Amino acid sequence: MKKTVVTLLFASLALGTTAQTENPRGIYKMATLTGKVGEVIAPFEQYKICTDSLTLMVAERNGTFVITDNDHCVFNYTGEQPKTDGDKGPLIYDSGPAEFKLKWWSPYVGHLYFPKDDWCIEKYVSGQYSAKGRIFFDALTGKPEADKSNPLIGTWRFIGFVDELHDMGKVLPKLRQDYPSSKYYNSFMVFLQKHVISISARGGRVDDIYYDGRKGFRSNNTNTQTKWLSKDCVAVEFSVDYRTDWMILERVVDGSTPLSAIAGQYVANSR
Predict the structure, then answer these.
(1) Which residues contact 194 (CB under 8 A, 6 or more apart)?
(2) Pair 133, 47: CB distance under 8 Å
(3) Phi, psi at 204, each rounded to 5°
(4) Around 119, how many Cα atoms within 13 Å sit in the side-chain half-sphere?
(5) Quick one: which H or E segment has residue 137?
(6) What is the DSSP-derived secondary structure letter of residue 265?
(7) Nearest alpha carbon to residue 207 among 63, 61, 29
(8) For the chain, which ranges sit under pLDDT 50?
(9) Collapsing DSSP states into helix, strand and coil, what is residue 1?
(10) Is position 2 within any domain?
(11) Which H or E element spans position 222?
(12) Burial per residue of 205-218, b for 16 or more beta-carbon CB atoms within 10 angstroms, e otherwise
């Protein structure tokens, strides 16, 4: 299957920069919102991932980070004012590596913060995360901790389920062949020293984890076994009612990150 390559240019913050007309690139957290009740501290946790190819939104909802292609456009500098009175497209201004403002036309009726038929302004800043947000984005952008004493730590692709671990020499090639067209495509598990993060194109969540060496781990009050098929392939126990299936994970060794894979999928689906 042909892979879509997405350029994720995360500009580094240059000290002393005063440029405010650059295209925002990187990960930004909403700091303030100006709408129906004036300017307020961001009333919910929301991020924008700004790249040369697309803009993704990540919002925290009940402990889950939800990823959407909410904006359907690349965030490039536009200036603060629309070109015509009838132009209601999003505006990007005061923008650069450190922050940017997004001005968008709100059609919402009865929203607590968004006005009806008027402009809403969101200010975003880089380098700011909630505690769990930082863990999630580190996993999303591929920054796992290294620990030679625990080979499970790292980033893994979830390629499918099996109900029993027999004849895996024949089963694994079939899982790999079916993976690009399966519902598990671009689903990942990232194991860190104290957290496990499940990630898919729809989003993910951060959970605490306690390891039992190579044998398994405990998370969400559930003990989970692991069966090692090779140093880069592991079966993780998944219990449903009285049945036990196995999630097959393969370590990511090609240098890609969950974000680059997921962003590429969004770009491919938009064509």
Answers:
(1) 208, 209
(2) yes
(3) 180, 180
(4) 17
(5) helix 131-140
(6) H
(7) 63
(8) 1-5, 9-17
(9) coil
(10) no
(11) strand 222-230
(12) bbeebebeeeebbe
Contact criterion met (CB below 8 Å) for 8 and 255: no
Tell me how far apart the terminal alpha carbons of the chain are, to the nearest angstrom. Answer: 16
Domain that holds residue 201: 134-269
The encoded tokens of residue 210 equal 């306690």
**Among candidates 141, 138, 108, 130, which has minimal Cα distance to 61?**
130
pLDDT digits (tens, 9 = 90+) for 193-229: 999 999 999 999 999 999 998 899 999 999 999 999 9
Residue 165's alpha-carbon distances to 83, 160, 247, 249, in angstroms, are 62, 13, 10, 13
Q: Total domain count for the chain?
A: 2
- Number of alpha carbons in the 13 Å side-chain half-sphere of residue 66: 11
Q: Taking each helix axis from N to C terminus, what angle separates 258-269 and 131-140, rounded to the nearest 10 degrees? A: 70
| Per-residue tokens: 212 | 């039992």
DSSP string, 55-85: EEEEEEETTEEEEE--S-S------SS-SST
CATH code of residue 258: 2.40.128
Q: What does the pLDDT read at residue 19?
A: 52
pLDDT of residue 6: 55
Please give the pLDDT value at position 244. 87
